[in-house]
TrEMBL record:
This is Rhodanese-like domain-containing protein 8, chloroplastic. It comes from the Eukaryota. Residues 218-321 form the Rhodanese domain. It comes from Theobroma cacao. InterPro entries: Rhodanese-like_dom, Rhodanese-like_dom_sf, Rhodanese_C, TrhO, TRHO_N. Gene3D superfamilies: 3.30.70.100, Rhodanese-like domain. It holds the Pfam family Rhodanese.
């Protein structure tokens, strides 16, 4: 079903919908509505400010029900979209040549995302139709240095989760203060020991049982370290993990404090030789990088869950996990059932899971939020990523504070799971 909108000289709007063999079969299509099969047709009037306002309003509406995918993708095909994540630390002698090879293979494929390559390996997150995304994985694994790479997938129900493809050489596969190219990332002995998800779960359960047996004297032999950002912790984390006091991984400083006793540094007073540090992040790469830094600081017993939280949820379900998992794409938040519906049933039947399902708080008023998903402040010049309850959302018109409600570049409140688009989409709208 496709259609067009007509605007008369008086500014009235009419809509007409019908069947077109393809978006290109209808003339007069513009970028956004054309993109989702709703070409615009202005009848009897030149494009003016009122026309643009109507078109932008319709564009915002139609964009809510379709993806930012390639024009050739229809809604039925979108249902088969997936997100693929993988990384590998391995020596690449000529990374620029490697980039060129990947660009050649991906030419013509409907893949969007971020794929970075350098002398230390590859880091990739991308979306696309499952057949095309897996074709890239199959091609990649034909290369011996990538043959046993751990590939993780999750559904992308609304199509592409990235606006375009970025495939290039990047000096650091992970952004960190001072870069990471000087770190011995290619030496597995310098990274944390990877534990299978089942072993990670067993260790968490053992620590929890020991703490219960000791009558409120928590074990000092183990530290559960979340090396993600604070806002990621806000919507989901392992039970017992403290919230990281950073909003950007590149400024993470656990174990690096120049003085002892810093409250925000969980490693400032620990025994580097005896304490077992269990580190976790979304997909594993940040743990591998940061554990290398901790090794250089003298920490001996470092462990991480293989494949990160996403791999753990897929194999073990949300046992010892609370909430959702933050993702760095347009989905922002994924419930554990996205990875494994069967194990979710087992975990949801425990009383502990029920008691720990009310941790997320509204950034504005501190009340409990019903939706574990961030939104951006409606003030473009703030754009803060924050959790918000329904009342504050309406009271502050999508803003994070009262000051932002009077900002000159405010965008409309977006319902549901929509994400803001470029400013020109909202510039002429009355908010």
């Amino acid at each position: 079903m496709r259609g067009w909108c007509a605007v008369s000289s008086s500014g009235s709007l009419s809509l007409n919908f019908g069947l077109y063999p393809s978006p290109k079969a209808a003339n007069g299509a513009c970028g956004c509505c054309f993109h989702h099969g709703f070409p615009r047709k202005v009848v009897g009037v030149k494009s003016n400010n009122n026309t643009r306002k109507v078109h932008r309003a319709i564009s915002i509406s139609c964009c809510a029900s379709a993806s930012n995918s390639n024009d050739k993708v229809c809604q039925a095909e979108i249902e088969n979209f997936v997100v693929v994540n993988f990384y590998r630390f391995v020596f690449i002698k000529d990374p620029q040549h490697e980039v060129a090879k990947h660009l050649t293979f991906l030419k013509g494929l409907n893949i969007h995302g971020r794929i970075y390559i350098n002398e230390q390996g590859i880091n990739a997150q991308y979306s696309g139709p499952s057949e095309e995304t897996f074709a890239y994985v199959k091609w990649l694994k034909e290369d011996e240095k990538f043959s046993d790479i751990l590939v993780q997938t999750s559904p992308a129900l609304n199509g592409h989760t990235f606006p375009k493809l970025k495939l290039r050489y990047k000096p650091s596969l992970v952004q960190f203060e001072g870069g990471v190219s000087h770190l011995p990332l290619l030496d597995p002995s310098m990274r944390a020991t990877p534990l299978a998800p089942s072993e990670w779960r067993e260790r968490l359960e053992a620590v929890d049982n020991n703490d219960k047996a000791s009558n409120s004297n928590p074990s000092t032999d183990y530290i559960l370290l979340d090396v993600r950002n604070g806002y990621e912790w806000d919507i989901g984390h392992f039970q017992g993990a403290q919230r990281p006091d950073v909003d950007c991984f590149r400024r993470t400083s656990f174990g690096l404090s120049p003085i002892e006793g810093v409250a925000s540094d969980l490693l400032s007073n620990v025994d580097k030789q005896k304490t077992n540090i269990m580190m976790y992040c979304t997909g594993g790469i940040r743990c591998d990088v940061y554990s290398t830094i901790l090794r250089q600081q003298g920490f001996q017993n470092l462990y991480t869950v293989e494949g990160g939280v996403s791999h753990y949820l897929k194999t073990e379900g949300p046992v010892k996990w609370v909430g959702n998992l933050f993702t760095f794409d347009s989905r922002l938040s994924l419930p554990p059932s996205t990875y494994n519906e069967e194990t979710l049933i087992e975990a949801s039947m425990t009383q502990q899971a029920l008691e720990n399902d009310k941790f997320a708080k509204c950034y504005v008023c501190g009340s409990q939020v019903s939706e574990l998903r961030h939104r951006n402040c409606a003030n473009l010049d703030c754009n803060l990523l924050f959790l918000c309850c329904a009342n504050c959302l309406m009271d502050l018109r999508g803003c994070c504070c009262y000051n932002c409600t009077t900002a000159p570049r405010r965008r409309p409140v977006l319902p549901g799971f929509q994400r803001y688009k470029k400013w020109h989409m909202y510039r002429d709208l009355e908010v």
